[in-house]
Amino acid sequence: MYLVDVLIFVGGLLLLVKGADLFVMSSSWIAERFGVSEFIIGLTLVSIGTSVPELASSLTASFEHASGIVIGNVLGSNIANIGLIVSTAALLSNVKTEELMLRRDGYIMLFSALLFLLFILDFRISRLEALIFLLLYFVYLLFLLDKVKKHEEDIYFEDFMNYFFKFEYIFDLKARIETGIRGRIEGKRAEKTAKELYEETERKNRTKKETITENKKETEIEIEKETEIEIEKETEIEIEKETEIEIEKETEIEIEKEIEDEIKNPAESSLLIELIKLVVSGVAIIVGAKYFIEQSIFFALLLEIPETLIGISLVAVGTSLPELMVTISAARSGYASIALGNVIGSNITNTLLILGCSGLVNPLTVTKISIYYITPFMLFISLLLLLFIRTGWRIKRTEGVILLLLYCGFMLSIFRLG
Prior knowledge:
By secondary structure, this protein is mainly α. The chain is built from 13 helices and four strands.
């Protein structure tokens, strides 16, 4: 009877593992193709993609007014990302860090956690607070994709705060819209100018032909012959010029093709194929996580594990599996920046995007254990991660062991409290 459930459980896990491998490879290729740093890709594309299971499960729980699962899922996932995933990456290899990780995205992660603590002091997250979370996340993405790119990533947390509170993102959006409108207007003007130029050229040609015809009638036969010879010469010169222009155009086309051939490495897949791989792997991660979580909950209920522990433990760990698989694949492939960027980006995404969307569906109620124990521990382990990032600008294996032991101790204490 339970054989089918076991097979679905294993199948979901396999989809997670293989999907994560393909996801890292495709996102890394796309990052190099567009000249985007691996860390930025980890913060945006990979972190959002691997946070979809948390978003789906939290939205479902929010529609069912299960606030405990939503809050437990987000807090548990953030703690698991640091205590389980970063520690795993550090145990596999020393994770190199840099000042930018700490002074920009690390501080933004800490700021979002502190804002969460501030919002839940009244034991609830209102729709207004959820809207603030979503606004912050939207501004964060604009900040990464627009402001950071212009400044070649040499921009920090204080710049993000100025960007947010001075409403610079509004001006950036306005500028983008105006640029698009201006481009369309200039395009129409260029078309109109080209049309007028063509009509003027045609008019001049007609005038020239009429003048030549009148001259032919007024001149003698010998002069007419000389004129015809001159016209033939001019025609030959024009034909030669047109031939040269066509040759130049063909040469330019051949050069462009050669440049494209040089840019595209024959050993690499095309951009379209990589995008398809990215979508397919993302779907595999989501589907795998869905069935894995469903079967995990089924076995938990079968073994009579209290439902109050599902959000913070089973659901949180289950929805963090995509991040874990992606991080392991990234660490083994030598993409440590993606691994750490994925964790920091996922924590920011979990707090701002998932709580924002879930809180808009229904205001969320928060329990005392979340305020007095779970959230303070999340802040503590987040601060510890930032400290480890700074120590020698790498996360060493010993530090990974410390994070893992803290996570195990936290989970044991949660089960004892449960």
